[in-house]
Design brief:
The structure holds two protein chains of two kinds. Chain A is mostly helical. Helices cover 68% and strands 6% of the residues of chain A. In chain A, the strands form two sheets. Chain A has a two-stranded antiparallel sheet. A two-stranded antiparallel ribbon of chain A has the order 4-5. By secondary structure, chain B is mainly alpha-helical. In chain B, α5 runs antiparallel to α7. Classes of the chains: A mainly alpha, B mainly alpha. At the A-B interface, α15, α16, α17, α21 and β3 of A face β1, α3, α4, α5 and α9 of B.
Chain lengths: 685, 319
C-alpha cells in the first residue's frame, strides 16, 4: 500500500497507460470520422490501435520491472467518488499481455478488414467498437474502485457485443450475440453483487478501502462465490461456457483473437484482483472449488473441441480448456496458501499467470491463422480444407508453431506452464489433509489426459486443414496472405518460442506480481542461472529449455549433415502414392476430421449428445444393390438440455406469471412507480 | 563429483551407447520370440543390417509429400535421442539428467509422436490417416496412466528428476512398496501400448487393417524409413530402461570409477535382457486385441497406476 510517490517513473508509467487508453479511444473516433474513406481508416485507426498496444506493453513492462504501485485520481465519475486509477505489477502484467496481442492485431487488421470493405456493414462500425473494446479492457486493468471497474467492464462487454454481431445479416450471429449479451450481463450483475458485499464492510467503493475491510469469514466466502461465478461466467468456465463457442467464432477473426486471447484473461485478472487483492484471507476450500471446476472445464473443453470441425468453433472450445488449466493453477495456489504453504502458493499462481500469458499468445496466433485461411478460401469447415501447407507455406509454418504450443509440447511455451502446474500439484505431500492429497494428483492426471487430447485435436486440425490434398476448389486456389498479416502471426509465434525457451527470465519478472499479492517471489526458480528452471529446488525438479533446444538442434544438425547431402542415397525420386493397385487415390479417400476423432467419440461417448444415423438407399430397380449411403452426425452440448433449457423455460414461465400485472394503462404504472418509491424510501431510511 | 567436462563426456558416451544398442535390443526380442515359437531365429545383429540396407537405399517420395513429411524422420529421431540422453543408463548424476525430468521426458515422446502422426496425414492416403488417428487415441489414453506412474515415483522420492529419484531408491534399500507393485504393472502395460507391441499393435504386420504404427510410416522409404525404424527401436529401449531404472535400480553406477561404470553396463544389460524375455513371453502368449478393446486395456493400466498412487498416499505418506 505505497502512497503515490510522484517520481519520474510514476509519471512516465501512468502517462504511458493514459496514452494507451487515449489512443484506443482516438482510434475509435477516427474510425467514425473516416467512414467515407476506407484507406484512411485502415491506416489511421490501426496505427492508433498499434500505438495503444505499444504504450500498453511499455507501461506494463516498466511496471513489472520496477515492481512499484502507481495511483492517481481523475476528476471524473460520481460526485463523491472520483475515478481511482492504479497501476501495480498485477495490472501491469495483464496490460503487457493486452498490449502484445493488440499490437499483433493492429498489424494484422488493415489487410484483413479489406474483405469487409464492400460488405453490407460499414468498416467504421468495426473500427469504432474495436477501439472502445480495447480501451474498455485497458480501463478495467487500471480501475481502482468498483464503480470505474464496472463502467469499464460494461464498456468492454457492450462494445464486444457489437463486434460479435458485426455481420448481423446472419440469424445465427444475432442469436450468438444475444446469448453473449445475456451472459455478460448476468456476469456483470454477479460481480456487482460481489463488490456490494465488500462495500458493506469497507463503507466505500474504492479498492484501497476494501483491502483493509474486516470481512467476516461467511461474508468473505459469499463475496468470493459471487465473484467466482461472475468472473467464471465471463471466462467461459464449464458449465457457463455455452456462449463462448457461439460468440467467439462469429466475430471477425482479429476480434476473435482479442476476445479469446484477451477478454477471457481480463476475467481471470478480475478474479485474481478480487480474491488475492481484495479479500485478505484466502481459504483452501475456495481453491478446491477452483481446482475441481478448472479440471472439469479443461477436460470437457478439450473433449468438445475434438468433436468440432468448424475451425474457429474448435478454437473457442479450446479456450474453455485453457481457462480451465489457468483455474487449476489458481486453485492449487489457493489450496496451498489456505493451508499455510505460501511458497507453493506462489508456484501455483505463477503457473496460472504464465499460462495466461501463453494462452493469450498462442490462441491469438491460432485465431489469426484461421482468419488468414478464412480470408483466402472463405472456408471455415475443416472437412473442406486440406493441403494448405503447399498453398500458404508460411502461414502453415506459423500455425504449426501455434499448434505445438497449445498442445503443450516442449520446447514451446504451453509446455512450461503446464509443467509448472504439474510441479505445483506434485507438492501435495506437504498437505496434512488426506483427501486433498488424493484429489490433487488425480486432477493432475486429468490434466495430463487433457494435454494428450489437445495434442490429438491439433494433429487433427493441422493434418486435415494443412496436410493431405485439397478437398475443394477454393482451397486448391488459395494464396498466401499479405505480409503484414504474416508479420503479426510471426511475432506471436516467435514469442511463443521465446517464452518457452526462457522461462527463468519470465518467472523472475512475474515475481514482482507475486511479491505484490503474496509478499514473496519465487527466487528458487532461477537460482541456478537463466539456463536452469528449478521451481522448488534443483533436487526436486529441473528443466532446461535452452539446452533442450540446443540438443534438438544438435541432433537435427548432425542427422542432416550425415544423411542429407547424398552420403549414399542420392537424389529423391518422386512417384505417386501407393494406392494398393486400385487406381488413383481421390481426395475423398483421405481421413476427415470426423473420421479422425471417431475413436475418441466412441470411447468417451456419454460425454456428448451424439445423434448419429446411417440411411442406406437401395436401388429401386435392383433391390439388392445399394444406391447410396447417407451418414448424418450431430454432436450437441450436454449442458444445453441439462442447464440452459430448464433455466430458460423457468424464466419464460416466470415472465408469463409476472406479465399479469402488465395492464397497459399509464395510471397503473404510475401507481407501481409510486409504491416502489415508497418501499425504497422505507428501506434505505 | 568428477570434473564437469568428464561428466559431460560421459553423458555423451552414455547417449551414444544408448542409441547404438537400441537395435541390439530389438534383435534380441526377435531372437527370444523365435526361440519361444520354435522358429529358427535371425542373428541378433539383424536390425543393424536392416538399418544399413535402408540407409543405402534411395528414397522414393510421394508426389504430395510436403517439407513436413521429409523433416519428420529427423525430428522424431532427434526427440528420441534427446529423450535417451536424459535417462540414466549406466550411471546416475550425469549433468544431462538435470536437463529434463520425467514429465519433460513424456513431453519429448509426445513431441515425436505429434510429428509422426502429422506425417501420417501428409500424403492423404487412408492408411496414414487411420494410423495417425489410432496412434493418437492410444497415446491420449496411455499418457495419463504414464504420468500417474511417474507421480507415484516422484511423490515417493519427492523429486521428478529421474536421477535423483533413483538415487533415493538406491539409498532407501530394498523396501517392499505396495504402490510400486501396482505401478510396475500399470507402467508395463503402458509401455506395451506406447511401443506398439502385441497385444495392442503388431510390429510385424503390414497392409492389415489393424496396424497402427506401421500405417503412419507406410509411405516412408530409404534413409527416412531407417530413421523411423531406429527411432522406434530407441523408443522401445527408452521404456525398457525406464522400467528397469524405476523398479530395479540396483547395479547402476553412482560414482564415476571405471569399475562402477563397467558394473553399470553389465547390470543394465542383464536387466534389459531379462525384461525383454518377459516381453517376448507376453507377446507370444497373447493374440492381437481388437482396436476398441485397447481402451479397456489402457483403462486397466490407468486404474493400476491410480491404485498405486492411492496406496502410496494411504500406506506410505500415512495418517
Amino acid at each position: 500500500m505505497a502512497d503515490p510517490n510522484l517520481t519520474e517513473g510514476t509519471v512516465l508509467t501512468l502517462a504511458l497507460a493514459y496514452l494507451a487508453v487515449a489512443s484506443a479511444l482516438l482510434s475509435a473516433l477516427v474510425a467514425l470520422a473516416t467512414d467515407r474513406y476506407p484507406v484512411v481508416f485502415k491506416i489511421t485507426s490501426f496505427v492508433l490501435l498499434g500505438a495503444a498496444g505499444i504504450s500498453a506493453v511499455a507501461a506494463g513492462v516498466m511496471n513489472l520491472l520496477s515492481g512499484k504501485i502507481h495511483t492517481a485520481q481523475l476528476g471524473l465519475g460520481l460526485p463523491w467518488l472520483a475515478w481511482h486509477l492504479r497501476l501495480d505489477p498485477l495490472s501491469g502484467f495483464f496490460m503487457a499481455v493486452t498490449g502484445i496481442v493488440v499490437l499483433a492485431v493492429a498489424f494484422y487488421g488493415p489487410a484483413y478488414v479489406r474483405q469487409y470493405q464492400h460488405g453490407p456493414q460499414p468498416l467504421s462500425v468495426l473500427g469504432f467498437f474495436t477501439g472502445l473494446f480495447v480501451a474498455g479492457m485497458l480501463l478495467v486493468l487500471m480501475a481502482d474502485d468498483a464503480f470505474l471497474f464496472l463502467v469499464a467492464w460494461e464498456l468492454m462487454s457492450l462494445s464486444s457485443y457489437f463486434l460479435v454481431t458485426y455481420q448481423h445479416q446472419y440469424a445465427s450471429n444475432r442469436r450468438a450475440g444475444y446469448l453473449y449479451l445475456l451472459m455478460a450481463e448476468i456476469s456483470a450483475l454477479l460481480i456487482l453483487l460481489a463488490f456490494g458485499v465488500l462495500a458493506q464492510f469497507s463503507h466505500s467503493f474504492a479498492f484501497h478501502a476494501m483491502r483493509h475491510a474486516q470481512v467476516p469469514p461467511f461474508w468473505a466466502t459469499t463475496a468470493f462465490v459471487l465473484a467466482f461465478l461472475g468472473f467464471g461466467l465471463k471466462a467461459g468456465l464449464i458449465p457457463f461456457h455455452a456462449w463462448l463457442p457461439e460468440a467467439h467464432p462469429v466475430a471477425p477473426s482479429h476480434i476473435s483473437a482479442l476476445m479469446s486471447g484477451l477478454m477471457l484473461k481480463i476475467a481471470v485478472y478480475g478474479l485474481i484482483r478480487f480474491s488475492y487483492g481484495l479479500l485478505a484471507h484466502i481459504r483452501w476450500e475456495w481453491g478446491l472449488v477452483l481446482l475441481l471446476m478448472g479440471t472439469a472445464s479443461a477436460l470437457w473443453g478439450v473433449l468438445y473441441a475434438l468433436m468440432q470441425h468448424d475451425l474457429k468453433r474448435l478454437l473457442a472450445y479450446h479456450s474453455v480448456e485453457n481457462i480451465g488449466i489457468i483455474f487449476m493453477g489458481l486453485g492449487l495456489s489457493m489450496i496451498f496458501i489456505g493451508t499455510g504453504h505460501p511458497v507453493l502458493g506462489v508456484l501455483g499462481l505463477i503457473a496460472a499467470l504464465y499460462h495466461t500469458l501463453n494462452h493469450a499468445l498462442f490462441k491469438s496466433l491460432l485465431f489469426l491463422g484461421s482468419g488468414a485461411i478464412l480470408m483466402r478460401t472463405h472456408e471455415g469447415d475443416l472437412e473442406h480444407m486440406g493441403g494448405l501447407i503447399r498453398r500458404m507455406p508460411q502461414t502453415a509454418f506459423l500455425f504449426l508453431i501455434g499448434c505445438l504450443s497449445i498442445s503443450a509440447l516442449p520446447p514451446f511455451n504451453g509446455f512450461v506452464s503446464e509443467w509448472l502446474t504439474f510441479q505445483s500439484a506434485l507438492q501435495v505431500s506437504v498437505l496434512s489433509n488426506a483427501v486433498l492429497r488424493a484429489i490433487i494428483p488425480v486432477t493432475a492426471a486429468l490434466l495430463a489426459l487433457t494435454g494428450a487430447l489437445a495434442a490429438t485435436c491439433f494433429v487433427k486440425v493441422y493434418g486435415v486443414a494443412f496436410l493431405g490434398r485439397a478437398r475443394t476448389r477454393r482451397i486448391r486456389h488459395a494464396r498466401e496472405v499479405h505480409w503484414s498479416m504474416r508479420l503479426a502471426m510471426g511475432t506471436l509465434a516467435l514469442l511463443c518460442l521465446l517464452f518457452g525457451v526462457l522461462p527463468t527470465v519470465t518467472i523472475r519478472v512475474l515475481g514482482s506480481v507475486t511479491k505484490l499479492l503474496l509478499h514473496r517471489g519465487l527466487p528458487s526458480a532461477s537460482v541456478h542461472g537463466w539456463l536452469w528452471l528449478t521451481p522448488v529446488s534443483a533436487g526436486v525438479a529441473s528443466y532446461s529449455a535452452p539446452l533442450v533446444v540446443f540438443g534438438l538442434l544438435l541432433a537435427l544438425g548432425i542427422g542432416y549433415v550425415l544423411l542429407h547431402p547424398r552420403m549414399s542415397s542420392g537424389a529423391i525420386r518422386r512417384v505417386s502414392a501407393w494406392d494398393c493397385g486400385f487406381g488413383a487415390l481421390s481426395t475423398r479417400m483421405q481421413y476427415t476430421a470426423t473420421a479422425f476423432s471417431m475413436p475418441i467419440r466412441r470411447i468417451f461417448n456419454p460425454v456428448w449428445l451424439v445423434d448419429e444415423s446411417t440411411t442406406v438407399h437401395m436401388d429401386p430397380r435392383e433391390p439388392l444393390r445399394v444406391a447410396s449411403v447417407e451418414y448424418q452426425l450431430h454432436i450437441g452440448d450436454r449442458f444445453w438440455p441439462m442447464l440452459y433449457e430448464p433455466v430458460s423455460r423457468w424464466v419464460l414461465s416466470a415472465a408469463r406469471y409476472v406479465s399479469r400485472i402488465q395492464t397497459g394503462r399509464v395510471r397503473t404504472y404510475l401507481a407501481y412507480s409510486f409504491v416502489t418509491l415508497l418501499v425504497l424510501l422505507w428501506l434505505i431510511r | 563429483m568428477a570434473h564437469p567436462l568428464i561428466a559431460w563426456a560421459l553423458a555423451l558416451l552414455q547417449t551414444l551407447l544408448f542409441i547404438a544398442s537400441a537395435p541390439l535390443l530389438a534383435g534380441w526380442i526377435k531372437c527370444v520370440r523365435c526361440v519361444l515359437q520354435n522358429r529358427a531365429s535371425p542373428s541378433v545383429l539383424q536390425p543393424y543390417r536392416d538399418l544399413g540396407k535402408l540407409f543405402r537405399k534411395k528414397v522414393v517420395l510421394a508426389e504430395e509429400a510436403s517439407w513436413l513429411f521429409r523433416s519428420t524422420p529427423y525430428i522424431v529421431l532427434g526427440t528420441m535421442i534427446l529423450a535417451a540422453a536424459v535417462i540414466p543408463l549406466v550411471t546416475v548424476r550425469l549433468p544431462t539428467d538435470a536437463i529434463a525430468d520425467v514429465i519433460v521426458l513424456v513431453g519429448f515422446l509426445a513431441l515425436g509422436r505429434f510429428f509422426l502422426a502429422l506425417a501420417g496425414l501428409d500424403i492423404g492416403t487412408s492408411f496414414g490417416g487411420m494410423g495417425s488417428s489410432r496412434e493418437m487415441m492410444v497415446a491420449s489414453l496411455a499418457e495419463p496412466a504414464m504420468l500417474m506412474a511417474v507421480f507415484t515415483l516422484s511423490m515417493t522420492a519427492s523429486s521428478t528428476n529421474l536421477s535423483t529419484a533413483m538415487h533415493y531408491l538406491l539409498q532407501s534399500g530394498l523396501v517392499l512398496r505396495p504402490a510400486f507393485v501396482f505401478t510396475a504393472a500399470g507402467l508395463m502395460m503402458v509401455a506395451i501400448a506406447e511401443t506398439g507391441r502385441l497385444p495392442v499393435d503388431n510390429p510385424a504386420t503390414h497392409l492389415e487393417l489393424t496396424m497402427i504404427h506401421e500405417g503412419m510410416i507406410l509411405e516412408y522409404s530409404g534413409r527416412h524409413l531407417a530413421l523411423m525404424e531406429w527411432a522406434s527401436e530407441i523408443k522401445l529401449m527408452i521404456y525398457a530402461v525406464l522400467i528397469a531404472d524405476i523398479f530395479l535400480p540396483w547395479g547402476i553406477a553412482t560414482r564415476f570409477t571405471a569399475w562402477a561404470l563397467v558394473m553399470g553396463v553389465v547390470a543394465i544389460g542383464a536387466k534389459l535382457a531379462l525384461l525383454v524375455v518377459l516381453l517376448a513371453v507376453i507377446e507370444s502368449g497373447l493374440a492381437k486385441m481388437r482396436l476398441f478393446r485397447v481402451p479397456e486395456f489402457l483403462n486397466l493400466a490407468f486404474l493400476l497406476c491410480l491404485l498405486g498412487l492411492l496406496s502410496h498416499i494411504i500406506l506410505e505418506v500415512g495418517i
